[in-house]
Amino acid sequence: MTRITDAFGRRSQPLLIACTIAGDPTPEASLAVIRAMITAGADMIELIVPFTNPVADGPVIRRGHERAIRSGNGIGTVFSLIEAVRRESEVPIILMTYANPVIARGEDRFLLDAAEAGADGILVVDMPPEEGRSLIAQERLDPIFIIAPSTPTMRMKEFGTLGKGFLYLVSAPGVTGRRDHLPTDLCPRIEALKAVTDLPVAVGFGIGSAGTAEEAVSAGADAVIAGSAITAAIEASSGDPGEDVAAVVRAIRAGIRPS
Amino acid sequence: MRFGPYGGRYAPEILMEPLRDLADAYDAFREDPKAQEELGSLLRRYAGRATPLYRCRNLGTNSTICLKREDLLHGGAHKINNTLGQALLAEKSGKTRLIAETGAGQHGVATAMAGAVLGLEVEVFMGAVDMQRQAPNVSRMELLGATVTPVTTGSKTLSDAVDEALRSWAATADDSHYLIGSCVGPDPFPRMVRDLQSVIGEELRSQSIAEEGRLPDAVVACVGGGSNAIGTFFPLLDDPVRLIGAEAGGRGLNPGDHGASLTCGSPGVLHGAYTSLLQDEEGRISPTHSISAGLDYPGVGPEHALLRDIGRAEYLTVTDAEAVAAFRLLSRREGIIPALESAHAVAAALRLAEEMPEESLIAVTLSGRGDKDLQAITGGGA
Fold first, then answer.
1. Angle (CA) A142 A143 A149, round 5°
2. Which site from A47, A243, B102, B318 is most exposed, i.e. has the minimal number of CB atoms within 10 Å?
3. B268, A75: Cβ pair inside 8 Å?
4. Which chain B positions have a beta carbon within 8 Å of A174's beta carbon?
């Protein structure tokens, strides 16, 4: 059993998956942010590989990518951060990346290095199963797939078979970013997905407050994923970003009631 | 669809269904005689096809250089071939809004024109740097009724504008068509843009036989994303004709100084396709430079990467200075002010004319006119 499956198995309430860009704004601060997320109640960490052209990300996370790249962070930083976290925690770590850094390193080598560093899952945003054969064929990391509002039922079923750990349900069309409320059709969409898969369903895109976390959980989410609110706290921080991020994580955590 | 190992559909899941819908709609559009006749009529009676093949009189080379005059099209560039086709497809698919990105501004202008004539709303994303250096085209787009949205992320040029257009499409695919400006992006865009631009090569082929009595020995076109080049090359692939693409050599071939994705790139994924890219060892996309905004792009259409690999097309680089010299020469000697993009192809043709046997026939696609570039030339942009 992987750390991800184990985390969902042990839960007494929906999980909180907290995201941050590796190296944003510096490797040291980034490690402090991850530690703060864990301490404040994150059940799982999604670590984002800094990339130059993050087409699925909204402005807040995009600026985080730029900050991380500006301070010289690359794949080395990503793997070092995972190793550093792994030395002190068993928290599951999902690596989120765009396809090109994976292809540039070599898909097999990337997956091997990530697994050896201590990652548990991988989500390649722009590598659908049609293009990601090695991702599906490998057994080192749980392949996480995104379900969009436009994903047809047959394809949901396919993701349910190919994916491991959980499925990442996008709350609404568009890119990452906070919203005041989640769409009203979220509940039937979660139900439709659960009708074709046994994998847990994590809802992301738009979760940045206790209110939106509660909406996702009420709609039936097994986990909520928060990224832009955390990245915004790093951006706005004038002192210790860990403190500011912890406050955001605690606030979102408060929206998750026992299921 | 792939071109050898290149191409594919590397897109976020949120775009996969819109891309499948688009591919289906395009296949139906291509096979629909009524739609094709409507497009043909628009190209003839609105855009101004066919464009002439002009034999240069005064360049003083030992070879004959002919220009395929896409600069004479409505809007001043080959871009209108593609935008009329995609806008018509969008209209027939029930879309009400066009999203576009633009570098030099010509694709944005052509999209704004197609949107205006077909009654579709248009939003054009343009890097803030490009908006400054192509200010007249921003005014044209706005006059034509388009909204021009500045992109201030990254290098503030074409690559970032494509990112932003993709993001906008992800949020609005139900009612919007992303009218991509070159033969780049996920399937079906590269083959759709190629097909729509193939009118250039088809006309060039028949005009060369009719007017020069033979096929050219070589055809030359500039390559940024590569749409005018693939439209020129594709109908000639089975002919005994050298196909030559001119890439932006910029200030030289050090990283960050050029836009030569085929000459200096390596395989990777950008904007939805596996192609030849300018990138570092970790897969981060490199900054680019060209005096010509339309060639200032770190990727290239995937079919060009295949043509390079199999040796069917040759790709060379032309520096900013060489392009400016060709720009001035063509203006002075032939009374034609070429787009800076096209001036790269002219410079490459002048070089080839020295290397090829005497009496060779070289055809150059003059992809656009250079009014938009006067500031870059007179402002000392070289």
1. 135
2. A243
3. no
4. 14, 167, 170-171
| ipTM of model | 0.94
Using a CB–CB cutoff of 8 Å, tell me whether B26 touches chain A.
no
Is B333:B340 a contact under the CB 8 Å cutoff?
A: no
Q: What tokens appear for A15 in the block?
A: 């999980």
Give the pLDDT of residue B381.
44
Query: Active-site residue among A6, A24, A28, A57?
Result: A57
Residues 115 through 174 of chain B touching chain A, CB cutoff 8 Å:
153-154, 159-160, 163, 166-167, 170-174
Q: Which amino acid is at B217?
A: D
Residue A90 is a catalytic residue? no
Query: Which H helix or E strand runs over A168?
Result: strand A167-170
Neighbours of A86 (CB within 10 A): 15
Contacts of B186 (CB under 8 A, 6+ apart): B8, B9, B10, B11, B15, B19, B271, B272, B273
Give per-residue pLDDT as tens, A99-139.
999 999 999 999 999 999 999 999 999 999 999 988 999 99
Using CB atoms, which residue from B13, B173, B285 is nearest to A53?
A: B285
> Cβ of B153 and A126 within 8 Å?
no
Point out which residues pair with A225 in neighbouring strands.
A17
Please classify residue B19 by burial: count the beta carbons closer than 10 Å to its beta carbon, then call 0-12 exposed, 13-18 middle and 19+ buried.
Answer: buried
Q: Mean pLDDT of successive 10-residue segments in chain B (382 residues)?
A: 96 95 98 98 98 96 96 97 98 97 92 98 94 89 97 85 90 95 97 98 98 98 97 98 98 96 98 97 94 92 98 98 98 98 98 96 97 81 42
Gap from A208 CA to chain B (nearest CA, Å): 19
pLDDT tens for residues A162-208? 999 999 999 988 878 778 888 889 999 999 999 999 999 999 998 99
Q: Establish if B348 touches chain A: CB-CB under 8 angstroms.
A: no
Alpha-carbon torsion, ordered B340, B341, B347, B350, to 10 deg: -110
* Per-residue pLDDT at B41: 98
Contact B16 A148 (CB under 8 A): yes
Residue A147 near chain B (CB below 8 Å): yes
